[in-house]
Design goal:
By secondary structure, this protein is α+β, with helices and mostly antiparallel strands. 39% of the residues lie in helices and 20% in strands. The strands form four sheets. It has a seven-stranded antiparallel sheet with strand order 15-12-14-13-17-18-16, sandwiched between helices. A hairpin with a 5-residue loop joins β8 and β9. The longest helix is centred in the C-terminal third of the chain and has 23 residues. The protein binds flavin-adenine dinucleotide (FAD). InterPro entries: FAD-bd_oxidored_4_C, FAD-bd_PCMH, FAD-bd_PCMH-like_sf, FAD-bd_PCMH_sub2, FAD-linked_Oxase-like_C, Oxid_FAD_bind_N, Vanillyl_alc_oxidase_C-sub2. Keywords: Acetylation, FAD, Flavoprotein, Mitochondrion, Oxidoreductase, Signal, Transit peptide.
């Protein structure tokens, strides 16, 4: 296969000078023709509106459009595109579904955006091995729809219906992480096109084992690499048995401390909670209005339990006892599927609910993660800081992991407010670092948190990351300007 690919791209390598002005700016006509030769004319666009669409994600980072967008149909084309760009010093920016929150797809040096949504096949389902192989255009919801009758499911659920390879690229997680882990725990193998076009299978071609002691963990290196080391063209994911029964619950607390204490107590009591989400009173108020819920306006936990009917009874009883011990009130159980789905849809829509509190404004979402014992402290500090900064914001989070989001609304026409929002987000991250946490539990580093990464891992940590990057991408063309 590798020699085939080399032969297929060889003709293109003979041309030189495709890129009219280095790595930033309009691409030469010859280069655009070369892109068309790889993927076909209908799958290349240099139209301004298309480039703009691909120059930003859901964050407030300024739109920085690529010079061209391409839609490969298969891995061979991705490989030829990478080799072509690399031979001409043109930056390559992988694009999943553009739902990222740290500016990961902004083309800061121009270049070619590789939109992978046309590669959307579920390649292989191995029910007995609890694994599936998907192409980068498959989203988490599409996979779960496909799995519906198999008795299996894929639990990692960021709020957006993101692409699974984009989720691998950002090390995403969501409400189920407390029980089922994040993408780091659920990716078994990755097929990656390296910047120069070579194809890598991080765990070896076709392999889908649960554990291994064979050499360096290349899969772990690429999960969370945010498009800076290569293009993920397939991922092998770990699946889980669909629970026999599910029950959700909500309860309100007199304080943030009481909600978090309950969470710690539930985890310490080894209640195998599947989801345990914290929503502050502002988020709850916003969800009540936006999703027509009827919850008390107070710090609240949304919980979910998975298991057999018998096991659920015990889990529910234990959780209810613990939360009541910490002063919880307005306990309500949601047993039927429709009611549960309404609740979790409202949780996933919390971001849009908070945005709707201030029409016309843009959202700024930041996330940090701390050891769970430090969660009440940082949540209280964050709220005080929001008030002192005169900002509109709410907090919600995957409290069982010590991970939470601050969702702020900002007037895009007001640079001063944007400055205050960014300063708040930086202070929040530094507080998390001071409490032995991380500046991001799930959204990634992207453009906005590069300085914070340095503070988090230290000089030698960053130097090691730079050395790894330089070895795989010596010209620095894979998604330049991100992470490091
Ligand atoms: C309402 C809302 C709620 C959210 N909630 C959560 C949450 O709870 N948890 C969470 O983790 N995130 C959350 N996010 C953020 C976002 O959904 C995740 O970061 C997601 O993993 C991004 O996937 P994507 O396919 O949209 O990637 P994109 O935004 O397209 O890209 C993100 C980064 O990954 C790179 N990339 C994408 N695809 C590939 C690929 N195939 N190969 C190599 N690199 C690639 C890009 O270059 C970029 O750097 C939320 C976003 C929104 C809008």
């Amino acid at each position: 296969m590798a020699s085939l690919l080399r032969a297929a791209t060889w003709g293109l390598f003979l041309w030189r000078g495709y890129c009219s002005r280095g790595t930033k700016g309009e691409l030469s006509k010859g280069f655009v023709e070369a892109l068309k030769a790889v993927v076909g004319s209908p799958h290349v666009s240099t139209a301004a509106v298309v480039r703009e669409h691909h120059g930003h994600d859901e964050s407030v980072h300024r739109c920085q459009p690529p010079d061209a967008v391409v839609w490969p149909q298969n891995v061979e084309q991705v490989s030829r595109l990478a080799a072509l760009c690399y031979s001409q010093g043109v930056p390559i920016i992988p694009f999943g579904t553009g739902t990222g929150l740290e500016g990961g797809v902004c083309a800061v040096q121009g270049g070619v955006c590789v939109n992978l949504t046309h590669m959307d096949r579920i390649l292989e389902l191995n029910p007995e091995d609890f694994s599936v192989v998907v192409e980068p255009g498959v989203t988490r919801k599409a996979l779960n729809t496909h799995l519906r009758d198999s008795g299996l499911w894929f639990p990692v659920d960021p709020g957006a219906d993101a692409s699974l390879c984009g989720m691998a690229a950002t090390g995403a997680s969501g409400t189920n992480a407390v029980r089922y882990g994040t993408m780091r725990d659920n990716v078994l193998n990755l097929e990656v096109v390296l910047p120069d076009g070579r194809l890598l299978h991080t765990a070896g071609p076709g392999r889908h084992f649960r554990k291994s002691a064979a050499g360096y963990n290349l899969t772990g290196l690429f999960v969370g690499s945010e498009g800076t080391l290569g293009l993920i063209t397939a991922t092998t994911l770990r699946l889980h048995p669909a629970p026999e029964a599910t029950v959700a619950a909500t309860c309100a607390f007199p304080s943030v401390q009481a909600a978090v204490d309950s969470t710690v107590h539930i985890l310490q009591a080894a209640v195998p909670v599947a989801r345990i989400e914290f929503l502050d009173e502002i988020t709850i108020d916003a969800c009540n209005r936006y999703s027509k819920l009827n919850c008390s306006v107070a710090p609240t936990l949304f919980l979910e339990f998975h298991g057999s009917e018998k096991a659920l009874e015990e889990q529910l009883q234990r959780a209810e006892e613990i939360t009541q011990h910490h002063g919880a009130s307005h306990f309500s159980w949601a047993k039927d599927a429709e009611e549960r789905s309404r609740l979790w849809q409202a949780r996933h829509n919390a971001w849009y609910a908070v945005l709707a509190l201030r029409p016309g404004c843009k959202g700024y979402s930041t996330d940090v993660c701390v050891p769970i014992s430090r969660l009440p402290e940082i949540l209280v500090q964050a709220k005080e800081d929001l008030n002192a900064s005169g900002l509109t914001g709410a907090t919600a989070g995957h409290v069982g992991d010590g991970n939470f989001h601050c969702m702020l609304s900002v007037d895009p026409e007001d640079p001063e407010e944007l400055r205050r929002v960014k300063a708040f987000a930086e202070r929040l991250s530094r507080r998390a670092l001071a409490l032995h946490g991380t500046c991001t539990g799930e959204h990634g580093i992207g453009l906005g948190k590069r300085q914070l990464l340095q503070e988090e891992v230290g000089a030698v940590g960053v130097q090691t990351m730079r050395q790894l990057k330089a070895m795989l991408d010596p010209q620095g063309l894979m998604n330049p300007g991100k992470v490091l």
